[in-house]
Specification:
By secondary structure, the chain is of the alpha/beta class. It has 15 helices and 14 strands. The strands form 4 sheets. It has an 8-stranded parallel β-barrel with strand order 1-2-3-4-5-7-11-12, surrounded by 5 helices. A hairpin with a 5-residue loop joins strand 9 and strand 10. It comes from Oceanobacillus locisalsi.
Length: 479
Amino acid sequence: MTETTIFPEGFLWGGATAANQIEGGFNEGNKGLNIADVLPGGKERLEVLNKPGFNWEIDKEKYRYPNHLGIDFYHRYREDIALFAEMGFKTYRMSIAWSRIFPDGDEHEPNEEGLAFYDRVFDELAKYDIEPVVTLSHYEMPLNLVKKYGGWRSREVVTFFERYVNVVLNRYKDKVKYWLTFNEINSGVMMPIMGLGFAVQKEEDKYQPTFQSFHHQFVASALAVKAAHQIIPESQVGCMLIYAPVYAYDSNPENVMYALEESRFFNNFCGDVQVRGKYPAFINRYFKEHDINIEMEDGDLELIEQGTVDFISLSYYMSRTERKEKTADEIGQGNMVGGVKNPFLKASDWGWEIDPMGLRIALNELYGRYEVPLFVVENGLGAYDKIEEDGSINDDYRIEYLREHIDAIGKAIEDGVEVMGYTPWGCIDLVSASTGQMSKRYGFIYVDLNDEGNGTLERKRKKSFYWYQHIIKTNGGEL
């Protein structure tokens, strides 16, 4: 057992989920359809996400839609929050489903049933002194905004988002202190369907609409930050990035430069705008090479400069190794991005390379660049879990993975990095965003549901449940 005493007092230990992956109740409480509601499960999901021209319609004859049920948190939130409290959670990162509050996204008046649902969730968390960390937009844009306006390509969506944000900030101003704007905002480069609300069409070049959409999200994020600081003076608002440090495959300067360019583009572009408050100089060459011309309104750049975030939250699952010239069979799997396979790293059941040191590197890189507090709001191991004959689930592989990553956070703190907290992803089993599967399990809590949607939905504590309970109890002092 590793002895450590480096985690600061008040460190926010907890877990993370997203509304579209756990809630279910997709057509209850006057909720409108959102992006996740039309994504099928299994290998079909990846085909949908990667092929051009997706039509956003539900085809029950052809596909299953696992997000419709999720894990039924909509009806079981009290039971699940009680289990979080039993583990000792100090915080719970969750999201509000935009389409529960504004079913079509463009209404003038919110849906009271949706607002009341989150009141109940926040009140239940408060009962156990669990601090909510709330993501405003987590891959669940109202489908009407996608079909009618083209998602974030439309400037009108900024107005709709601002209206939604003001409603929830005013409603929950006494219940929520920590807010995140857009989940994994930089994912829009790889998966515009989920992050930006549009599917690339065959005749359409993706670069211009992608970066125009980013600009609209930057404006919307700045508006949200300013509104939060005004409505909830003690609030703290963060951006949320996928972060995967990029290693050069070798010391060839060509590969080192390529790795640097890839890292700046994917890891730093959105962070620079949201934290530093301006477009970075390095993006100008990219815009020129891809003939990108961002349409801006008067005052946009001033607004972005004024609406910078208070902290950076990030998901970290893996690092990325890059070589300028590579073949298809060398490319590895990963969270939106892959790179080439790193011979020094092992991989998960889904091919994501496991690199705890990469988290320490990521935290040092981010803090060195921005010097604002950091919050690791996603990190975890998707794996197959087996129920033993006695009913136990001995997920030692998950414990080992999390222990090594928590130790990496501790070492980063010793390096001088300011880290606010740690909320491992999928603290309870949920529907995978990338594959729509239940068999890709992350949780400390097992949910009896399979990839075909069959099961009792019974919750079971895994071995990791008790291990993480001890981690929280000792504030990371005994890993």
